[in-house]
Write a structure and sequence with these properties.
The complex is a heterodimer of chains A (about 725) and B (about 160). Chain A has a seven-stranded mixed beta sheet, sandwiched between helices. The two termini of chain A are about 50 Å apart. Helix content of chain A is about 30%, strand content about 25%. Chain A has about 725 residues and is an alpha+beta fold. In chain A, strand 3, helix 3 and strand 4 form a beta-alpha-beta unit. With about 160 residues, chain B is of the alpha+beta class. Chain B has two domains: about 80 residues, Beta-grasp domain (Ubiquitin-like (UB roll), Roll); about 60 residues, [2Fe-2S]-binding domain (DNA polymerase, domain 1). In chain B, about 35% of the residues lie in helices and about 15% in strands. Chain B contains six helices and five strands, in the order E-E-H-E-E-E-H-H-H-H-H. Chain B is globular, with a radius of gyration of 15 Å. The N and C termini of chain B lie far apart (about 50 Å). Classes of the chains: A alpha+beta (about 725), B alpha+beta (about 160). The interface between A and B is large, with 67 and 61 residues.
Chain lengths: ~725, ~160
């Protein structure tokens, strides 16, 4: 259990000034303080060893529940050959990363990339530190390093049997020239990585001791909340602060930019109460006439539009379709959805003309640092960000740093005073970076034997990259729209071999901010493709598993996860009376996933009895955490399928809290059996891909149970009676 | 001014009586284990006990409480994380992000107090807290493990 139950003033002051790294605070023992007391030695950027053999492993990616912190530590510890029971972790700060030529690489924690992007260099970090520790021991013993080996935090000189622990040689090791090359272990020989170890961050989450961004306390700190114009593209027209500014505890009512007002008070509740008392007139801007209906019309137009960005082609699908004897066509639609992290957006900032510091739960510390510097108007070298554990991220807290910007703009108006800004849930719901809306028209041809001879999949709808990362566009095309539907590549290649295939995108961008939402575009695409493939199977009169087997014959990894769930659900035995079964598979985020579901409908109510899921992520770093990610994916994915919809009306979102934006709760949660079936040889992500198969597996099962084919989400809009 | 008995200590707290208990706990009493999630008693992240009964403290003004009523927060559930539910949670490594878990544990503790051997249906009906990471199945297992009072094997 962590010793740091509170973030003390001393830890912050020492931490931010420390020579050893000014590492992040409020995260286990404030490192610099502990280091100063213990004379810890930084062997290299990834590994710090204390005289008492405690090992502090530096983690660049953020922990938001997905278990990356534990998994990355396992990878470093595996190569380091340290005693796992002596491992703690620490976040380096983005400012330190910048000052040290980005020695920790990327801090970005999204796209299920935490482990799959960094496994190689973090293992090299552990292996390099191990070699340096061995070299230091060998030098002290005056023996060749090749005669020494490390295990369980102890170095042994094999011929003589002499032993020394890491803590005794760490200071000397820190001065050793690092080896230029290290050999990484074959995963077959892993002892720490690959094992279902408990998380390193559990204990404090059971006692209320874990400090999240909303919990931060700094000396002299004030509290704030904001209200931004709820109309997309609108701004503040006028506001009357005369009564609010006289309310108890209120220090300042301010407008921080064109769209946003803030109240700073002694306590957050006072700030929130005063905000509610403000009289605000909004300029609704140019989009006040936009509604979900008008957006749906806009997208509908794209389904048959002449121009579209082409991504995936084989043969000549339009020609084959026009000549086909039998074609099947269907139109699907997917709504806007909010991330709805449990912890609302927040950040704490302290600004002086010389320095700006921000404490924030962020998926990307470097993006937070850049946002802080820009808002502060200071060189980035004069800014610093201290990362805190996230109460959920799901993509909301990575690319988007609106809350950091706001907190700095507030702090800038009261220099020297740390101010914690927390959004209300309503602010969070109305100012999302929404899972974008798309529609999809699929048309396929079937021959007399039930083979799919041609398919055209036309996606119409919003591009995330066009709005938030235009540098990722390819000649106007957004490649991310085609997640799971590419012919090759980690971001999802399609497993089905169809001789004439065309997948294209008519970009239609409504005035709603889109964002990366856990699973991103794979969610919409798998819902479309896997539902439609079942429609084709039924049209061909072929069992849906057998139908997919034929289509997947050239993609054994896609097929293997599907076979795994089919076996698990008992596909070859009849379902219990009244129960329907459904399947889905997809590849994305570098991994192959599938799900099978059993559901029934009674009195118009859907009951999901059981899910079987399979994941092939190549290498598995912690199977216990993979299981948790897979299970959790059904909560996120089925919340979206059953309930998730943000409705536009009059240029703003309607749903503003959990009573209108319903999510899954305990009673709706099915049993989930997870099959982890790693085939080795590659590194895939696990936080996101399974979400994509949740909806189609369940909705295919619903069709089997009820004969109702759901083509528009969420399910709550449809009567099952 | 409010006189409140929090985790066994009576305190006089200078505060507007309309302030919800959650914010008094977090801002005046310095007990941040109870979380703000929705402010409208929907998500349960703010769950604490009043005389052993779980309540959603984000909508309960402190004016509704007297010093005779025992308020228990996650920090007061046990001194050292030794409550059977905390132990079961640890054994099964339940939390992911953890933000909802204080409320989950407090809701579960309230349930077990009234109903020491809850059925699945009881758990479905009583544990209505929201978790977005998706820990529900492990929360259920942990409640059953704590209820069983039996030593548990390490779950993987």
């Amino acid at each position: 259990m962590s010793m740091a139950t509170q973030v003390s003033r001393r830890s912050f002051l020492i931490g931010s000034a420390s020579a050893i790294g000014g590492l992040s605070l409020g995260f286990h023992v404030p490192f610099a303080e502990a280091a100063a007391a213990q004379k810890a030695a930084e062997v290299n950027a990834w590994v710090v060893v204390q005289p008492d053999d405690q090992v502090i492993i530096r983690i660049a990616r953020s922990e938001m529940g997905q278990g990356t912190l534990t998994g990355l530590a396992q990878l470093v510890a595996e190569e380091l050959e340290c005693d796992w029971s002596k491992v703690t972790t620490e976040y380096p700060t983005p400012g330190q990363n910048l000052a040290r030529d980005r020695v920790w690489g990327s801090f970005s924690t999204g796209g299920s990339r935490g482990i799959r992007d960094s496994h190689e260099y973090v293992r090299q970090g552990g292996a390099t530190a191990r070699e340096m520790l061995i070299a230091a021991a060998a030098a002290e013993w005056k023996v060749p390093a090749s005669e020494c080996a490390a295990a369980n935090s102890v170095i042994t000189h094999t011929p003589s049997g002499r032993k020394v622990s890491f803590g005794k040689v760490a200071t000397a090791a820190a001065k050793v020239t690092p080896p230029k090359q290290v050999t990484l272990k074959d995963p077959k020989n892993w002892k720490i990585a690959g094992k279902p170890l408990p998380r390193l961050d559990t204990a404090d989450k059971l006692t209320g001791k874990q400090i999240y961004g909303t919990d931060l306390q700094l000396p002299g700190m004030l509290n704030a909340t904001v209200r931004a114009c709820p109309y997309f593209g609108g701004k503040v027209k006028s506001f009357d602060a005369s009564s609010a500014s006289k309310m108890p505890g209120v220090r300042k009512v301010m407008q921080i930019d064109d769209t946003t007002l803030a109240v700073v008070a002694d306590t957050w509740w006072q700030a929130k109460t005063a905000m509610d008392a403000l009289t605000i007139e909004w300029d609704q801007g140019p989009n006040a006439g936009v509604s979900s209906e008008s957006i749906a019309e806009m997208l509908k137009d794209g389904l048959d539009a002449k121009d579209a960005f082409v991504q995936t082609t084989a043969g000549d699908a339009p020609a084959a379709l026009s000549k086909a004897k039998k074609t099947v066509s269907a139109v699907y639609a997917y709504p806007y959805q909010n991330h709805a992290t449990m912890e609302p957006m927040n950040a704490t900032a302290r600004y002086t003309p010389q320095k700006c510091e921000v404490w924030v739960p962020t998926q990307n510390g470097e993006a937070s640092l850049a946002a802080a510097a820009e808002a502060a108007g200071l060189p980035v070298q004069q800014c610093e960000v201290y990362k805190l554990h996230l109460g959920g991220g799901f993509g909301r807290r990575g690319n988007f740093q609106d809350y950091v910007r706001q907190s700095v703009l507030i702090a800038k108006q009261m220099p020297g005073t740390p101010i914690k800004m927390i959004w209300t849930r309503e602010e969070d719901m109305l100012h999302g970076q929404y899972h974008p809306t798309t529609q999809c028209k699929l048309t396929a041809a079937l021959d007399d034997e039930g083979n799919v001879t041609a398919m055209h999949m036309r996606i119409s709808g919003q591009s995330i990259l066009a709005a938030v990362r235009p540098e990722g566009m390819q000649g106007g095309k957004d490649p991310a729209v085609f997640q799971g539907l590419n012919l090759t590549g980690d971001e999802g290649h399609i497993g089905y071999t169809i001789p004439n295939l065309l997948i294209d995108h008519a970009m239609r961008n409504p005035p709603v901010p889109p964002g990366f939402w856990r699973g991103v575009n794979l969610n919409q695409n798998a819902f479309y493709l896997e539902s439609f493939v079942e429609e084709l199977a039924h049209a061909a009169g072929v069992d849906p598993l057998e139908f997919r087997r034929r289509l997947l014959k050239n993609h054994p990894k896609h097929l293997a996860v599907l076979e795994s769930v089919a076996k698990g659900i008992g596909w070859d035995t009849p379902a219990p009376k009244g129960v329907g079964r459904g399947l889905a598979q997809i590849m994305g985020f570098g991994s192959y996933v599938a799900a099978a579901a059993e559901v029934s409908v009674t009195d118009g109510q859907l009951k999901i009895h059981r899910i079987v899921a399979a994941t092939d992520a190549g290498h598995i770093v912690n199977p216990a955490q993979v299981e948790r990610q897979v299970e959790g994916s059904f909560v996120y994915g089925l919340s979206a399928a059953l309930f998730g919809e943000c409705t536009m009306q009059g240029g703003r979102m309607v749903e503003d809290n959990f009573h209108t934006y319903q999510v899954m709760r305990m009673a709706e949660m099915p049993k989930v059996d997870t099959h982890i079936v790693p085939s080795g040889g590659f590194w895939g992500g696990v936080g996101e891909p399974t979400i994509a198969v949740a909806a189609p597996a369940v909705l295919n099962a619903l069709f089997a149970a009820s004969g109702k084919r759901i083509r528009t989400l969420p399910l709550k809009k449809h009567s099952l009676a | 001014m409010a006189r409140l008995n929090i985790n066994g200590t009576v305190r006089d707290i200078e505060v507007d009586p309309n302030t919800p208990l959650l914010w008094v706990l977090r801002e005046q009493a310095g007990l941040t284990g109870s979380k703000y999630g929705c402010g409208v008693a929907q998500c349960g992240a703010c769950t604490v006990h009043i005389d052993g009964n779980p309540v959603r403290s984000c909508v309960l003004p402190v004016s509704a409480l007297s010093a005779e009523q025992q308020i228990t927060t996650i920090e007061g559930l046990s001194k050292d994380g030794s409550h059977p539910l905390q132990q079961a949670w640890l054994k099964l490594d339940v939390p992911q992000c953890g933000y909802c878990q204080s409320g989950m544990i407090m809701a579960a503790a309230g349930l077990l107090q009234r109903n020491p051997k809850p059925s699945d249906a009881d758990i479905d009906a009583e544990i209505t807290n929201i978790c977005r990471c998706g820990t529900y199945n492990r929360v259920r297992e942990a409640i059953k493990l704590a209820a069983s009072g039996l030593p548990a094997k390490q779950d993987t």
